[in-house]
Amino acid sequence: MTTPIRVLVCDDQALIRTGFTTIIDAQPDMAAVGECGDGRAAVDLAGRLRPDVVVMDVRMPVLDGIKATRLLAGAGIAHPVKVLVVTTFNLDEYVYEALRAGASGFLLKDAPPAQLLPGSRTVA
User: Fold this and answer.
1) Which CATH architecture has domain 5-123?
2) How many whole angstroms from its chain centre is CA 110?
3) CA separation for the pair 58, 87 (Å, rounded)
4) 3-state helix, strand, coil in the chain (%, to 5)
5) How far are the Cα atoms of 75, 78, 111 from residue 116, in angstroms, in the given order?
6) pTM of this prediction?
7) How confident is the model at residue 98 (pLDDT cuts 50, 70, 90)?
């Protein structure tokens, strides 16, 4: 049996975090290893947990998802983490900023739930 893809879920809305975590944990090849509600906590947890993928919201308190992505996956990061950015806002600006910050993928929250899984697998 292969090692499951380890996913950290970061979103400031508890309901979204719980939904993503539930969907991920229901997969035989994936495991949610943690969750948090702000970008600073995402950076801290990713450093401790070393997930394969961080599912990262864009707009969050303390440190937004773009800045957190830059700290996890940006240019010059010694051990970058793969980041799948998710947001409710369909703005080209967010897509470009996320990719410039080092994100490996981008997904809108209004996408069908089934897209979260292949998106996470592809990023991993």
Assistant:
1) 3-Layer(aba) Sandwich (3.40)
2) 16
3) 6
4) 45, 25, 35
5) 25, 27, 8
6) 0.90
7) confident
